[in-house]
Amino acid sequence: MPAPMLEAMQQLDQWLMLRMNRDWVNTFLDRLLPTVSSFAAWIPLFILGAVCVWWRGGFRARAFLICAVLAALLSEGLLGGPLKKIIGRVRPHEVMSDVVKRTLPKARPQILALFRLPDVAGHNRSNPDAKGRSFPSSHTVNMFAVAAVALTFFGWRGWVFLLAAALVAWSRVYCGVHWPSDVLGSAPLGLLAGWGVTRSVDALWRNYGSRWLPSVHKAYPALLARARASE
């Protein structure tokens, strides 16, 4: 890419970063988006939701849950983590002193932080020696991977997962920990990962499910086929 074009893109990224992080803000978003962005606080609720789906859901709901967990784990392990080290892009709050960083306070257990006001810190000290871990955004990759699984299983009825993924991506920029281009580049990575995992698991079930669970495979020869009317 020509240097002038690259510089223009970087300037646009910085301009949009400041608009989304400092100008297009309000007290409601200051409370909502750091809460959305804090996965650590949501882990108990994620686990509870997964248990409920496994306990009360039918075959397709359980298959969706398996694919969603695999997609999130693989996108983090094979995409998010390795690419962060390879690319080494620094986070905005580490190189721009005028970026506002918003986080939930520490709590024990961390889920209690969901009921507390976020910490807001401006005037960050620039750190030129910071180790870059900005691209891709793991939160964005993982959420869009799960959204892709939902869309593949349920069609546009899975729109709520896509909406949640977009909200998380927005929150990462709003909270000052990712550039806009980080989340824009991470979203297609997640969608591709989720789609690939779902199609791969479906192919494995079609070809080998009769060996593993013959009675279940007879009723459901494909993960993505229409569910029985009783479900």
Strand order in the largest sheet: 1-2
Note the beta-strand portion: under 5%
The overall pLDDT, averaged over residues, is 90
CATH architecture: Up-down Bundle
CATH fold assignment:
Vanadium-containing Chloroperoxidase, domain 1
Oligomer: single chain
General description of the model:
With 231 residues, this protein is an all-alpha fold. The chain has one domain: Vanadium-containing Chloroperoxidase, domain 1 (Up-down Bundle), CATH 1.20.144. It is built from nine helices and two strands; from the N terminus they run αααααββαααα. A two-stranded antiparallel ribbon has the order 1-2. Helix 6 packs antiparallel against helix 7 (159-174). The N and C termini lie far apart (52 Å). The model is unreliable at 227-231 (pLDDT under 50).
Give keywords.
Vanadium-containing Chloroperoxidase, domain 1, 2 strands, globular, 3% strand, 231 residues, mainly alpha
Summary?
With 231 residues, the protein is mainly alpha-helical. It has nine helices and two strands, in the order αααααββαααα.
What topology emerges from the helices and strands here?
Blueprint lengths: L2 H21 L3 H11 L1 H18 L2 H29 L4 H4 L5 E3 L15 E3 L16 H17 L4 H16 L5 H33 L1 H6 L12
Antiparallel strand pairs: 1-2
Helix pairs in contact: 2-7, 4-6, 4-8, 6-7, 6-8, 7-8
